[in-house]
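Following up on my earlier thread - several people asked me to post the actual chain instead of describing it. Fair enough. Here it is, all 173 residues.
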Amino acid sequence: TIRRSRLPSFSLQPCSAHAMTDFGILTFSHTELRVRDLKAMEQFFTRVLGFLVTDRSETMVFLSRDPQEHHQIVLARADAVENRAGALDHLAFRAPSLNDLRRIHGQLREQRFARPEAVSHGTTWSVYFRDPQGNRFEIFCETPWHVAQPVRDRLDSPIDPSNQAKCRPGRVR
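Reply from S.P.:
Thanks for posting it. Predicted structure:
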């Protein structure tokens, strides 16, 4: 028999006076995978793992098992993203608010390796950035709209409410 033990309780503490403590407010949201056979992977995630398709395009499938999450897994056709099948594209974390996202974006701009990029996906405002080894991350907060995906509009400046124009009314559901 396998016994399951309870995980010990813990709290996240900054490891130094220079730690970016705002990151403690984030919750894990989703991951994006690059795949060679989009149809086969969609069938695996839906038939074997029980995910539902929540959105799609010719090159991407969005899947979730949680009615509160638009997507938990994104499958992106490898030839649509640099032909690197099997590679993890990014890990994504949800920020509680736009103000929190702005503050974190400012902190990331101070890290020379991060190269943060602000983006609107219509349904979210996002900041993509790199870790010191080049792995990609996304931190986002929700907008008040639902927009069919995929949408990616680069924002020229730090996350700013005036960029709401990037969410064109024709795409809002």
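The first strand starts at residue 27 and ends at 35. That should answer part of your original question.
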